[in-house]
Amino acid sequence: MFGRGAIGSILKRSKEACLIQKLTGRSKTTAFRSSHPSSIAEQQSFKFCNPPVSAHFFRTFRSHLVPKGHHVPFTRNFSKTVSAAAGHKEGLKLLVTGGPRAQKAIGIWLFGSAAWVFSMVILGGLTRLTRSGLSMTDWKFAGEFPPLTDEAWLQEFEKYQQSPEYKRVNRGMKIEEFKFIYWMEYGHRMWGRALGLMFALPYSYFLHKGYITVRLGLRLSVLFGLGAGQGLIGWWMVKSGLEEPATEYSQPRVSPYRLAAHLTSAFAIYCGLFWTALSVVMPEPPAESLAWVRGAAKVKRLALPVSLLVGLTAVSGAFVAGNDAGHAFNTFPKMGDTWIPEDILEMKPLIRNFFENTSTVQLNHRILATATLISVSALWLLTRKLDLHPAVRSVIGGVFGMASLQVTLGISTLLSYVPVSLGTAHQAGALTLLTFMLLLNHTVRKPSLALLKSLPQVVKAH
């Protein structure tokens, strides 16, 4: 087909190109990608040789192989050769087997489950803000049918009339008003049970098909266990609100510790599902050059502490909700007539003030929210001059915009005495901001070794 002299010429010129690139450390073209990788892992991560060498090698090899004026379907055969070489490289460990279709199906299922948990958080906020959570005075793990007759409604209403909330807050409530808060709580509970079925049935199917790896299976089993335990945590929380308050002047409400545990657990389940879904559909971060990888590494060092601060602020918001602290000091930026209330350390022991003292809890949330906005703004400013992938830059912009919106929602909710609409939007905003931070951390993670070895120094300018 072609002589030894042609092959020797090709290899000699390729070695010279490799030597030049090592000396200069630069590249001008993107890497050649195999169109038929030998495995799904290579399909996600493999690029052949260094960019100048691969392009040079391909053009030279083809010019010797195909005479002028002839057209041969060469690319497919060459791709097979490339794929064979790629098999010796370190591949990417995927969470899903079964090909791209299985990967897409499981990704859609996990994103759908995460969206369902997100809706659960919103519905839980509505239930709390409408004071509906204590309307059902008992709980069954498997659920129960709602009252369907007038007699059944009267029985449920009589149970509620024995509760401290009815006696101290809702005395004189009509049965039609009771039906509204009952349906809110019933809907919240049944929506959670429906999520369990929606998660378990596809999970069983994908396991049966063999699409889920051991690593993914263990992770999803833990998330399913947390979801099942969330119902128990919810009832543990509600039960605290059905007990008689410590003094006759106190209104019955759930324990702020238990409410914070319930909300934090929901946030943790959501984060686990969302991160896992991203890992399934995007096993490699967006990285087309070593310069962008280095830029992403710098962003990662900044993004991690900011993410921790966002999470801590969200948890502090749970204690604001648990203590009804949003109904106090409805002014901003001062708290009433002062910057710092005088009673912020009146409880003993001292640590209780940060979880039970209304003044301290709200002040703590204000400080953390302000620190979060400042940190996110600093992240946005410090990364503006970095060489970053456009996707990473877009996510950083989304984080900055969402943090600004969330602070605006928080101030508006406070000044408006916590209306249901704004209070729910503020709670949803906290989870949305956390979503952006998860996406940012996932996007700037380190690529696999196989991908790093194949990347050019810079991306070709178009």
TrEMBL record:
Coiled coil: none annotated. It catalyses: Fe(II)-heme o + 2 A + H2O = Fe(II)-heme a + 2 AH2. One of its GO terms (cellular component) is mitochondrial inner membrane. The chain crosses the membrane at residues 106-126, 190-208, 220-238, 258-281, 302-322, 363-383, 395-418, 424-444. Its cofactor is heme b. It is found in: Membrane. It holds the Pfam family COX15-CtaA. The keyword ATP-binding does not apply. Keywords: Heme biosynthesis, Iron, Membrane, Metal-binding, Oxidoreductase, Transmembrane, Transmembrane helix. GO terms for molecular function: heme A synthase activity; metal ion binding; oxidoreductase activity, acting on NAD(P)H, heme protein as acceptor. InterPro entries: COX15/CtaA_fam (IPR003780), HemeA_Synthase_type2 (IPR023754). It comes from the Eukaryota. Pathway: Porphyrin-containing compound metabolism; heme A biosynthesis; heme A from heme O: step 1/1. It is a multi-pass membrane protein. One of its GO terms (biological process) is heme A biosynthetic process. Its main location: membrane. PANTHER family: CYTOCHROME C OXIDASE ASSEMBLY PROTEIN COX15 (PTHR23289), CYTOCHROME C OXIDASE ASSEMBLY PROTEIN COX15 HOMOLOG (PTHR23289:SF2). HAMAP family: HemeA_synth_type2. This is Cytochrome c oxidase assembly protein COX15.
